[in-house]
Amino acid sequence: MDKSLLLGLPVLLCCFRGLKGQMGPLAAAVSHLLPYSLAQIIEIIQCRMCHIQFPRQKCSRGRGLCIAVKEEACTTGRIFKYDGTLWLTFRGCLKNCANVNNIKWSVYLVNFRCCRSHDLCNEDI
Predict the structure, then answer these.
(1) Dihedral pair phi/psi, residue 70, rounded to 5°
(2) Largest CA distance in the chain
(3) Strands 45-53 and 64-68: what pairing?
(4) What kind of fold does domain 45-123 have according to CATH?
(5) 38 vs 29: CA distance, rounded Å
(6) What sign does the CA torsion over 46, 49, 55, 57 have?
């Protein structure tokens, strides 16, 4: 097989991420040719990243993108004061992410939202 064709295959397969459930026999055949399985290639999504963002301000630390692989998700965390006022927001990639509400942390409440629906899905949250 031509090397350029083999290197272009992961890019092509990423375009068909939505068809992953319909590609069973193809996934088995291609997984022997590539160092990564088709499922791993399909499961990769991009997430918005920001370590510190205060209300009504732009991201002040850690702005960029991260890549969430199979066991990770895009996440948005929000820290509220006890009176319900938003104090801080952070975004990124997180392994074993879970949606949680009102976790008590000192004098704050923390909410986490996780998503894997599409690239940059944690911008919408």
Answers:
(1) -50, -45
(2) 63
(3) antiparallel
(4) CD59 (2.10.60)
(5) 9
(6) negative
Q: Give the long-range contacts of residues 93-98, CB within 8 A, separation 24 or more.
A: 93/47, 93/49, 93/66, 93/67, 93/68, 94/68, 95/71, 96/71, 97/72, 97/73
Q: Spell out the residues 6+ positions from residue 13 whose beta carbon is closer than 8 angstroms to its own.
A: 30, 38, 41, 42
In this structure, what DSSP letter does residue 18 have? G
pLDDT in tens, 18-77: 333 444 444 444 445 455 554 455 579 999 999 999 999 999 999 999 999 989 999 999
Domain ranges in the chain?
3-42, 45-123
CB 33 within 8 A of CB 6: yes
State the pTM of this model.
0.65
